[in-house]
């Protein structure tokens, strides 16, 4: 477990990452977590007192990594860009896979959507699965499954699918 304090940052203009809120994991700390690694890997631990698990660290090309802070995490830590954050991380070498039996059953009926879904990395598949499984009601879950399958059939990644469904 590594412990350090960092500042919450936000990308202004950074291609697909524009607008992301994140923290930096410096090269020396990343090497302590997973020596010799320069590729994405998953971590667990705490951000202040907020527990995290199975979150991907993304390489930045200079040896450092970033940990994107999605809306749920930002709400959980109750901090904004510029705030200091106490970080405790360790490699999560056995992240629990996210599953959605209903979604997987529906995908079986749409071979093109299933084929595209299977080309996605586990992390990108998990965007769909977590979004579907986070629905609070059955009608919302059904709607998210339908939107996901339609998007996958159109070969949309998660972000593209979400943007195409804005306002629906």
From TrEMBL:
Superkingdom of source: Bacteria
Pfam families: DUF1905 (PF08922), OmdA (PF13376)
SUPFAM superfamilies listed in its UniProt record: AF2212/PG0164-like
Gene3D superfamilies xrefs: AF2212/PG0164-like (2.40.30.100)
UniProt-recorded name of the protein: DUF1905 domain-containing protein
Protein species of origin: Chitinophaga agri
């Amino acid at each position: 477990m590594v412990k350090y304090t960092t500042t919450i940052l936000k990308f202004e203009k950074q291609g697909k990452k524009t607008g992301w809120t994140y923290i930096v994991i410096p090269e020396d700390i990343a090497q302590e977590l997973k020596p010799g690694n320069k590729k994405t890997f998953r971590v667990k631990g705490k951000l202040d007192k907020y527990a995290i698990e199975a979150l991907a660290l993304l390489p930045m090309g200079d040896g450092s990594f970033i940990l994107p802070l999605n809306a749920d995490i930002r709400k959980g830590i109750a901090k904004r860009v510029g705030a200091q954050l106490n970080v405790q991380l360790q490699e999560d070498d056995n992240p629990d896979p996210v599953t959605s039996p209903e979604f997987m059953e529906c995908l079986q009926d749409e071979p093109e959507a299933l084929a595209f879904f299977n080309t996605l990395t586990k992390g990108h598949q998990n965007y769909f699965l977590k979004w579907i499984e986070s629905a609070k009601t059955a009608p919302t879950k059904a709607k998210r499954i339908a939107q996901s399958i339609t998007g996958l059939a159109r070969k949309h990644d998660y972000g593209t699918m979400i943007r195409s469904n804005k306002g629906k």
